[in-house]
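User: Quick sanity check before I run a bigger batch. Here is a single chain. Can you write out its predicted 3D structure?
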Amino acid sequence: MRFLLCLVMLAAPLAVWPDEPVPANFLIEGVPFIGYHDVRDAAYPGSDVINPSLTAVAQIMYGYWGEDFIASARAKSLPAGWTTSSGDQASLDDLKSLLARGIPVQVAPATTPDAHRLYSTPKLCAVITPVSYERPRPASGSLGELVSHRAVEQLREGGCGVGLNDSVFLTSKLLIGYDDERRIFTMHDPSFGPQLELGYDEFSRMWAVTEAKYWARHPDVVPPESIRPATTVRTRTNDDEAAVALFRAYGLNVSGRYAESESTIREALALEGLGAGRRHLLQLELAVSLNETGRCAEAIEAAREAQASFGDYALAHSVLANLLACSDDKAARNEAKRELKRATDLCSVKAQRRVADELGRDFHVMGCKGELLGWYRP
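Assistant: Done. Predicted structure follows.
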């Protein structure tokens, strides 16, 4: 597969040597950007169980040093003269020391600042053991089952930590810089775009959920001269910002913080030039936020607006049907039945393929039978 390499030029000082003091800020030059959609259809090793974002970040990392990750993965070996730097329960200083040497660092923090995707293994363990954990509050369901960070802690403390960091649901990011004065990391995120900035506090909270792991593969000797020049610039877009807002709002919903979710969504919807897919998913999540705060009529209107943006997502019709079914109005109940019929019809292969192409371009959304649409294309 031909990968789209969008190279980002960042103004930065020369990298330091390992024994030199770490500067207060640093940005690595010439780090390429590869999106989720650039690798999701590739036949990379483990493509059935490894989230495309993990492979995209690995391909960025290898590409920065002039190597091909997929070729190395198939050979099951690092390129000659390479090493791996890694750790867990690490500190921010561990990350900065590598970045200051010009080495991009891969991390896979929690899905959102407030919630994390839950794989089936810890849920099954919690039933068998049993372990009590904080159950998620209602969300649209488009991004699957997320639970609060507190729930993750409860599962881990109860001995059900296996699968919490499963490769199916981990979303990977590649750190490329930091700034102590602004207290931010800069990173490439295959789902959320290039040069995403996260504050130290928010990043630390998300990173701790997945046990503060990091890894970087790079040449044994990393002189400043090895940094490759950039050739093209890919700037952040409003769709990038909307994707960040969508995941944040979804995490707030499952945490029961509906007012904050509504505010986050409305701010994102005010951005200019949003794609139909982004607008659809934001409106769908807004419908849940409104309904959970007792504003059913507004919720129904938001769900209808979601369908106006993109009408082929079965889940959206199910959400609208559930909202309408709560009404005492006979016409509304009849409409709810029609919406459920429409949802069933949209579980066809053809319809789910449209969902995968439109909504699942940069991250997967849930299909009718739990398929990860976008990663999986019917």
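DSSP finds 14 helices and 13 strands in the chain.

User: Great, the batch can go ahead then.
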